[in-house]
Amino acid sequence: MLRVDGELMLVQNERQVEAESARGARALNLRRLVAGMATRASGLTPTTVEMTRLLTHHLVGHSHALALAFDEGIGALRRAGVSPMMLRSLVAPRAARFAKLMESADSWLEKCGLRDERADARLAATALGAEPVPEFEQVEQAVLRGLGHWENADLEFFEGVHQNIRGRNGRGLVIELPTARAFRAKSGMESLLTKLERRWAAQPDSPSIDFVEPDQPGQETVIEAQHAESEARVVAHAVLDALSRGTPVDGIAVVTLDSSQSFLEPLRTELNLAKIPFTEPRGRPAVASPRAHAALELLKLARGALTRDGLVDLLLTPDLRPERWLQTRERRALHRLVRELERLPLNTDSSGTELLGALAEPDGSEVRSLAHAALKRMLLDLEYLKGPSQRSRLGSAWRSLLDALGMLETNPNALERGLDVANATELLQSLGDDAAGLRALLTAVERTESAAAALGFGDQQLLAGEYLQEIEAALTGVGPATGAGRAGAVWVARPADVAGLRHEVVVVCRASKSHLDCSTSSAELSLGEPLMQALPWSLRPPAAMEQAGFAELGLAWATVHASRVVVTFSRDETGNRDGPSRWTEALRGYPKRHLEPTSPLHSGARRVRALAAPNGGALRRMRVERARSDFFLRRAGEDPYTGRAPSLPRLVRGDSPEHPVAVTTLERYLRCPFLAFAEAGLRATRRSEDGDTIDARIRGRLLHQSLAAGMEAASRLPSNASASERQAAALNAAEVYLTSQGRSPLRRAAMQNLVADAAALIRWSAGADDPLLFLEAERAFGQAEKWGPLALEGVYVSGRIDRIDASPSRKRLRIIDYKSGGQPTRKEWHHELLQPW
Is the pLDDT of residue 518 over 90? Predict the structure, then answer.
């Protein structure tokens, strides 16, 4: 398009403003222009995303997730230019509900001196005809460039701009759009242009459309990868190839259609391996920062059920200052606390006291008592955070606790280590990412609290879980500030960020059907299809088909000025086959697309750096792995690396009193040698599911402890006590112990079964005519115990003796080991083969 005097360029972001200004044109950011005009017209302060979410949650009064859905619907209606009066005239589900919500929100915002910024386009369009607009003085023609998405209210504003300029004898507004050749996907372009033609066909004077041709017929390459990791490798290789051709580094853009970390993290890894300088405006999410993750974990633990793994995760935060809970700065004390927590059989504590009770069980260990005291202090802090409390007080208490734990500042020792270590680029980068993530979290907190104060919700009573939901919702719109980083770096961005900009090489990644054709409309999800269909077509939010057309329009703008385009796509995250999008299939280079091997070791793989020559150790490992493959696939001969396991006694130990093996462990290993090799040789462990259910291990421990408590209570009675009195005392002590261990409803139900089992064994034992009397229970033997390890045919074992009975003269002893099974017969009893259940 030819330049004219008095021309004003309207673009989508500040990067485009800079690009237009560098070419000598006058340019304005469209969004800032609309916001400024709306502020002048209303005299009210615009809301933030956090404000509208909090207000909708207050008005809806339901769960936070439902409030977010309603807020999405209200935003879609305001951007489409729908008024509450229009909604009340419709006979459709949810119409009256949304009309009432919008009216209540408008009234509340007006009292607070605020306006919903999502209605700015319509408000600015109304203000265009009321008074002169300073931005349009001496403007003969306005050109809208790089537009990749619009709402109905935006079109109303464009029409107002056009009429305002035409009213002063100007040429009006010109909207630039890529041509069909640049658009490539013909169906998406036709759907968008049809709606514009339908709207403006009846108007005598409407904005004109100028179609932009590609600068030159670009070379197009399509590469199909197997998964996200191989696709990231392809993208990095394409950047290296462009650099080798002499392309400036800032003349390359990587446009991604997938903002998930499952793809961006491999892409960062490959770009760093290739030593390519790149910049991304958003960076890693805040929750990827260890300190930000630990700060949110504090609120999660205070919200409800405690988890042992959550506590361990919090305590293992790098550079955590543990003295608040441990009363010492020694890291060894922190590691001891972590070990004690990891040994607990219980993982989920719904009541908040079961983990503490498990550590309170006496075992004569000083470490256990210190861990109990530390956990008690932690639980007091979490209980204080739980609330309910005023939002401002809850946030202040949370930040005070974070400050006491050293999470709000970078540890100087960690920074010093990073500066001292040679080639510590990755360490310093991780410290920077950690600090940026924490800043993003604090920014989200500040925005949430400022929004609440502006709406008058600062003194609202909240629980920790509600406060956490607000912070997590605010984090979705706050990214770690990574700085501009524009000079001499590859630009990794979304299509809208590079729309209309000039790059010599554009790499479009994740251009598959699931990321481009299967677009979803948040308006359809929140408003519902009946309400969408009931709205007039000129006031209807974009549906899924229009969203897909906008996505293709954004790609057309991103590639219209590129001399070379590389497009990649791959399978989806579940490993299913994900075909190319229709935009990808429309590329000239699609029929001869390249297939990228899965492994970077493949001879045809596009690598970011050359493979190093294998050394002797690598060759030996290769031979071992090939031997293993031959054995498992073709049953080749056995050798020490395949079918022949090493000596188990050497792995299990138990060969000296200093290294005994537990009796139960030895028993399991004798039953299953492969289990012994997996646990002792491969260090494989079995992980139990979280919950309040009682597994076999916990059940056995509780039953043993209850029986010990019952028999010890009975043995403390006078010698002249009757059998019924001893039985009653034992039953009562066992029931008291088991009742104290069940605090959640599900756990109490399981405890009732244990009480019945313990009672049956106590009654059976007390009713037997037995010359041997109870002596003691749960006698431990092993290293550091009063009874040392026991020698068993050359193997030293440790463990616990469930019960020991003795005659009054102590000349006869009986060792009892509780097992699951049926009730023993009298014959077994007389032969002293007692194995009760």
Answer: no
